[in-house]
Amino acid sequence: MRHRLGGLSAFTVAWQGIIYAVKHERHMKFHVFATGAVLGLSWLFHIPGDRLMFVLLAITLVLSAELFNTAIEKTVDLAMPTEHPLAKIAKDTAAGAVLVTAVFAIIVFIYVFAFPLKEWLGF
Length: 123
Ligand SMILES: Nc1ncnc2c1ncn2[C@@H]1O[C@H](COP(=O)(O)OP(=O)(O)OP(=O)(O)O)[C@@H](O)[C@H]1O
Prior knowledge:
The protein is an all-alpha fold. It has helices spanning 10-24, 26-44, 49-79, 85-121. Helix 2 (26-44) packs antiparallel against helix 3 (49-79) and helix 3 (49-79) runs antiparallel to helix 4 (85-121). The chain starts with 9 loop residues before the first helix and ends with a helix. The protein binds adenosine-5'-triphosphate. Residues 25-27, 73, 80, 83-84, 87-88, 91-92, 95 line the site of adenosine-5'-triphosphate.
């Protein structure tokens, strides 16, 4: 079944999805805050372009995974409002995907910022 966009462009509806997740999803709020903090640190420490690409990749992966996770949660809630083992598996594996990207982001953070932070703190 195909819905008309009702005059809205594909970009507008995609943006509405992102705004919904940022406004209503606790974890998405944290990820957006962390994104701002990490980009601020990158600017402060003059992180070179090749390392900055790792930072941007990690941010993209985490935010995308969180958006997919929200989409899966909402779809499961729509299809299965009561408890069901398959609903649990769907939600838990979606959350697992976010966790995998978050671990990658932590590794990137350590790789990129450990040395500049150490120098800044005077160790
Ligand atoms: N319909 C369901 N049937 C069985 N287990 C469920 C169901 N809905 C949720 N759960 C279990 O509860 C957990 C939490 O689900 P919930 O929908 O509250 O998402 P969440 O992880 O709290 O995300 P958020 O905090 O972003 O809302 C799921 O990971 C799953 O283990």
